[in-house]
Design the sequence.
């Protein structure tokens, strides 16, 4: 089985290498010494259809059980970016994911944001947006993720939601500050009499389930003049998450996160360090079948979720050797703790990841990763992952 | 109780930030000479590399860089001075 996994990983790796090499070679083999003028063609609107195509191969094994492997997920994301004029800007993300069960695909509008620049440090925005919450989601969960897989502790707090906000960046002496404040529909509480998902928050709602709005924001501080270090503090509070008119309407939820992002070149080595801690606390509640509260369906539990990760990568970007300088080696540890007594919870899960990335271009990585998941009372799970992304 | 403390800290932080923004606007906080003198190429290396590899300036046309830089102004919440210089540098390759 291990031999098959190695073979499959090797074939997929070679395939990706070939395609990516062809992409990078096409530039080298067809040099354009005198490129045509790439200047503006007139008109005030500036449009860029950016996006990415990604493919992944995973082989996972739970100790004592047969392993499974598959090419999944395969997806395409389109990002229409439209600068309407000097103040108005449209930013969207449309994701097309292949149906894992075969046949067809799902299309999702991940983001649709309209920005209006009032002043250099004051940008208003409205739409369906990913709030600045921690350093991973919305920032490093793309081709920028050098570990192929997501840290297990991320994605359990505020995610893409609908609302309005303001943000901006300010130079304060040699340091910089950035901020974001927003009001959104906020999360919706899942009330599930089977208990399976009782207490889970759902952020992907276009229409609100009550009159209350969530408020959130973040502050980023870059203390050094070369912007090498950024530390952020972010949070969100929703006073009501349940459906209007129900006994659960007033269940509140609060989330906060702290993170840091450090980058520096100690010639010839480029070092990156990332870390984040986040916590989401949702108010506890009992789920009864009747108003007299005599028939308890799902007992309350401490609905607290916490997650963290810390990782570092090294890349010898200063080397003259073009191949060696494109390799980046990373290591990452982290954990996620779900509510222990919830049916969807359990004991803390730890994750350890090592990953080797080869950069074909500045936005075309090929990642080889190995993940180990451990959980008290459960068998260890391991996974080999090969991922390629073509960002365009 | 812990939640209340966290949000008190967050609220105070935002209040301080508000004060900084207002004071920066009112007093037109002077940018140090060393910062103001930074070139677009230097800012490109310092800021873009924070999250992803610094982009090859030959990747897009001038119009496309306009749209891409607006995207990064919002995504990375860069200052206006930074994004203007970086955009000029990226366009200079065309």
Sequence:
């Amino acid at each position: 089985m291990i031999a098959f996994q190695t073979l499959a990983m090797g074939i997929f790796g070679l395939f990706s290498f070939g395609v990516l090499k062809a992409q990078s070679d096409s530039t080298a083999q067809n040099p354009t010494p005198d490129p045509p003028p790439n200047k503006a063609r007139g008109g005030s609107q500036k449009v860029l259809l950016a996006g990415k195509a990604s493919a992944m191969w995973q082989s996972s094994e739970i100790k004592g059980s047969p392993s499974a492997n598959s090419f999944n997920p395969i997806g395409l994301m389109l990002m229409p970016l439209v600068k309407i004029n000097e103040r108005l800007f449209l930013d969207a993300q449309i994701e097309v994911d292949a149906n894992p069960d075969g046949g067809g695909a799902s299309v999702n509008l991940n983001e649709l944001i309209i920005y209006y620049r009032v002043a250099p440090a004051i940008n208003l925005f409205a739409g369906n947006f990913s709030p600045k919450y921690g350093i991973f989601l919305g920032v490093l969960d793309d081709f920028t993720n050098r570990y192929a897989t997501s840290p297990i502790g991320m994605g359990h707090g505020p995610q893409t939601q609908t609302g309005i906000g303001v943000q901006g960046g300010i130079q304060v002496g040699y340091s910089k500050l950035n901020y974001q404040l927003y009001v959104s529909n906020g999360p919706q509480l899942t009330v599930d009499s089977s208990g399976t998902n009782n207490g889970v928050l759902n952020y992907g709602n276009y229409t609100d389930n009550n009159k209350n709005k969530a408020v959130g924001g973040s502050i980023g501080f870059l203390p050094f003049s070369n912007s090498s270090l950024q530390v952020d503090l972010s949070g969100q509070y929703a006073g009501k998450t349940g459906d209007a008119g129900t006994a659960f309407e007033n269940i509140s939820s609060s989330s906060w996160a702290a993170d840091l992002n450090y980058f520096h070149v100690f010639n010839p080595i480029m070092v990156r360090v990332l870390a984040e801690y986040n916590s989401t606390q949702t108010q506890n509640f009992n789920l009864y079948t009747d108003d007299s509260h005599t028939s308890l369906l799902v007992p309350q539990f401490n609905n607290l979720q916490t997650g963290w990760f810390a990782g570092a990568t090294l890349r010898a970007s200063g080397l003259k050797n073009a191949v060696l300088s494109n390799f980046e080696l990373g290591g990452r540890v982290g954990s996620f703790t779900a509510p222990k007594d919830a049916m969807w919870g359990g004991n803390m899960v730890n994750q350890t990841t090592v990953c080797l990335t080869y950069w074909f271009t500045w936005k075309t990585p090929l990642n080889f990763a190995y993940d180990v998941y451990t959980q008290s009372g459960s068998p260890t799970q391991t996974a080999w992952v090969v991922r390629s992304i073509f960002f365009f | 109780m812990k939640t209340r403390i966290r949000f008190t800290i967050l609220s105070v932080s935002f209040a301080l930030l508000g004060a900084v923004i207002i004071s920066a606007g009112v007093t037109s906080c002077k940018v140090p000479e060393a910062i103001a003198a930074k070139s677009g190429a230097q800012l490109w290396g310092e800021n873009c590399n924070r999250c992803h590899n610094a982009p090859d300036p030959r990747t897009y046309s001038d119009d496309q860089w306009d749209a891409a830089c607006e995207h990064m102004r919002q995504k990375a919440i860069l200052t206006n001075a930074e994004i203007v210089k970086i955009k000029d540098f990226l366009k200079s390759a065309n």
